[in-house]
Write a structure and sequence with these properties.
alpha+beta; GIY-YIG endonuclease; 3-stranded antiparallel beta sheet; 4 helices; GIY-YIG_endonuc_sf; UPF0213_domain; nuclease; Putative endonuclease
Length: 103
């Protein structure tokens, strides 16, 4: 069975990068070796893996990657630290139009 991994790495400048791969070890090594000069992580090496999630269905992995790419860095860090309470708080809607924010 083939597995897919959604991962988050922290770059040397503390920025986060989210990606997907079918070989996590190889992909982290590629980021750190700087094979692709146009890659986001190229000038931000070394990188450090802070989160990974394994999937057996590529479509689920793609869906999850697209979802967390839109998250704030705070929310991604909460995910990587397994801080469920903070993750829940950061997921709450804070828009003025949200029903909880109306008088």
């Amino acid at each position: 069975m083939k597995f897919y991994y959604v991962y988050i790495v922290e770059c040397s400048d503390m920025l986060l990068y989210t990606g997907i791969t079918n070989n996590l070890v190889r992909r982290i090594n590629e980021h750190n070796s700087g094979l692709n000069k146009s890659c986001f992580t190229y000038k931000r090496r070394p990188i450090n893996l802070i989160f990974s999630q394994e999937f057996s269905d590529v479509n689920q992995a793609i869906y999850f990657e697209k979802k967390i790419k839109k998250w704030s860095a705070f929310k991604k860090r909460a995910l990587s630290n397994e801080d469920d309470l903070l993750l829940h708080l950061l997921a709450e809607c804070r828009n003025d139009s949200h029903f909880r924010n109306k008088d």
